[in-house]
């Protein structure tokens, strides 16, 4: 279990965590996969797990995984790994903030249903592009198009 941490959403403080071992294992796997496949000359940089990202005044959030642009530190991709009891902040509050702030990509990784929701930015906000299940693969153009089998994300140790 990890220690609780704090996020600021529209001026309101939320205490998050502690995070359980399955949550952290999924975070480890996602970070390792992105680290392996992010090109060395990429315009994107992987931040440490739950690094604070300021999306607008009064809103400092800590995605489980964040890729930002090297030139201006703008968020390109956020991933939120859900665990029991934290669905509302990640799937409602933070998803809306990511959309409002025009983050290009969002992954919501749900161990309860063992799927990954992939959202992309459009002119009117986020659009659900796909819900990936165990027989499908996760990919992103920024990661050289390399695929990650969803079943591997949720595999037992």
Q: What is the subunit arrangement here? A: single chain
The coarse silhouette is: globular
Instruction: Give the rounded overall mean pLDDT.
Output: 93
Could you tell me the number of beta strands? 12
Strand order of the largest sheet: 3-6-7-8-9-10
The run of helices and strands is EEHEEEEEHEEEEEH
Task: State the end-to-end CA separation.
Answer: 16 Å
Q: What key attributes describe this structure?
A:
single chain; 157 residues; alpha+beta; tt1808, chain A; 6-stranded mixed sheet; 3 helices; 23% helix; globular
Describe this structure in words.
This protein has helices at 21-37, 87-100, 150-154; strands at residues 5-9, 12-16, 44-46, 53-56, 59-61, 65-69, 75-82, 105-110, 115-122, 125-132, 137-138, 148-149. The strands form four sheets. A six-stranded mixed β-sheet has the order 3-6-7-8-9-10. A two-stranded antiparallel ribbon has the order 1-2. The protein has a two-stranded antiparallel ribbon with strand order 4-5. The mean pLDDT is 93. The two termini are 16 Å apart. The chain has three helices and twelve strands. With 157 residues, it is an alpha+beta fold. 27% of the residues are buried. A hairpin with a 2-residue loop joins strand 1 (5-9) and strand 2. The protein is 23% helix and 38% strand. It has one domain: tt1808, chain A (Alpha-Beta Complex), CATH 3.90.1570.10.
